[in-house]
Structure formats: C-alpha cells, structure tokens
Amino acid sequence: CIRVSDNGIGITNKPATEVFRLFMRGSDRSETGGVGLYLSKVCVDRLGGEIQLEKSSGEGSTFLVELPTDLTPILTERRRLQDVVRRKEREALDELRKMPSAD
Questions:
Q1: Residue 51 forms beta bridges with which residues?
Q2: Where residue 39 sits, what CATH number does that domain have?
Q3: In a 3-state reduction of DSSP, which class is residue 86?
Q4: Strands 50-56 and 2-5
Q5: Sign of the CA dihedral 22, 37, 24, 14?
Q6: End-to-end alpha-carbon separation of the chain, Å?
Q7: How many independent structural domains does the chain possess?
C-alpha cells in the first residue's frame, strides 16, 4: 500500500467517488484542470490496482494506492493482445494487396 499526501487546499464538498472523474476539481478555489486524479486512477486501474481518497481536509488530502505485487498476468495479457493486433494488421494488409489496382 502506498500513501500519498499533499498540503494543498484539500478536496471540499465532493463525494470520494467523484474526485476521480475527468475535469473534476477538488474545490471551487482550485486552479487545476481536474485531470491529475483521473489519470492517476486510469493508470492504477490498468495495473489492476485500486486508488481511494483516505482523507481530505481544508489543508491537503491523502490517497491510498494498492497495486498487485505480481504484474505477470497483466503483462502476459498485454503481450497476447499485441500479438492479436499484429496478426490482424498483417491479415488486413494481405487482403489489401489482393485487391485489384485502380490503374
């Protein structure tokens, strides 16, 4: 488990599940674009982990990040999908080569 804390203005008046939405800002006083927590969640999700808001006050927030210790299944699936994409690309190119020329 990784605990990340900051000393910013905090996340106020937002349900914990809402803070990870794209363009959701932690506070009306925030000058950020509302992309950072969204991207963090996307990355953590893709690694098979979880991220959650542990606490937030008027001064800073704390998040918990849990990642699997064994990424082998995720990496294996990624390689398998890359192989499928390469095979489909080759098949599509072969079909294009078989088509009559427009000369």
A1: 65
A2: 3.30.565.10
A3: helix
A4: unpaired
A5: positive
A6: 63
A7: 1
